[in-house]
Amino acid sequence: MNSPHLTAALDLAVRGVPVLPLRAGKVPFVNCLDCRDNACGGRPNMKSPGPCACPRPCHAWAAATTDPAVLTGSAWSSCWKQAAAVAWHPGGIGLTVVDLDHADAVAWARRTLPATRTVPTTRGQHWIYQGAMPSANAVRSGVDVKSTMVYARWLGPGTGTMAILPDAVRALIVKKPSPVRPVMAHVPTGGGECRHRTPAYLERGIAMAEQRIREATSGVHATVYRTFLAVLSTHGRCGCLTDSHAARLFAAAQTKGESPRHCVDAWSNARTALGM
């Protein structure tokens, strides 16, 4: 008979949510001997998403899986017997969790962020947005951002309609100039015909481009370049495309393993191809 946590994990996996077991204290199970001290390189060095190649759930967020054969296999069985909770990888399905750890943080979110799906926690709330981004802890008092390369404790589906990840959340992790900043000076500043009759037109285009990059399963370099080319061709000649929009596309590419340098090069090459 499955444990309640394994049953919950299997239900999430069927819906495409990558999951893993947590032991008491909301921490993953310890590394296996083959991978202790990151001996296996962490696929590689924990910088790219996906399960570790070893047979144990030893790399926290990177071990999260939707494969029922892995979840129910012998390598996981002892973990589920000892598990205290189920964790999930938000960035693995293109989502971001704003973890609000106390009442003041919740009050700040209600004043500052657009309403979205919320999940009650022991001390506060999880606010879940559609869109992935880099993760960061303690971005302000009682606020963590959990998306790519981290896990969050599964506390239920929540209530409310999920909103698109706002720039206000993305801005929380910006503590120093972005590594992609040199290319931002080349965002076009105007001179062409403006096709953006409403802000929604540009927002929809950027959101679709982010999704196209996140959904790439192969040929990521080519997909990123073609997406940058399409965005610049459609939105880049009138001055409406901003640094913030470009940074969103760069962040999406980096969640797929692209380096900041590759993002800069792809953006520059797309501009050159368009004569911009």
The main sheet comes to: 6 strands, mixed
Estimate the strand proportion. Answer: 5-15%
Number of helices: 11
- Kindly report how far apart the N and C termini lie: 62 Å
Q: Which shape, going by the Cα principal axes?
A: globular
Poorly predicted spans: 43-50, 176-185
Descriptive notes:
There is one protein chain. With 276 residues, this protein is of the alpha+beta class. The chain contains eleven helices and ten strands. α8 packs antiparallel against α9. 37% of the residues are buried. About 7% of the residues have low confidence.
Question: What is the fold's blueprint, element by element?
Answer:
Blueprint: H1 4-14, E1 19-23, E2 27-28, H2 42-45, H3 68-71, H4 74-82, E3 85-88, E4 95-100, H5 103-112, E5 117-120, E6 125-130, E7 136-140, E8 143-146, E9 152-153, E10 163-164, H6 167-170, H7 181-184, H8 199-214, H9 220-235, H10 243-255, H11 260-273
Parallel strand pairs: 6-10
Antiparallel strand pairs: 1-2, 1-3, 3-9, 4-6, 4-8, 5-6, 7-8
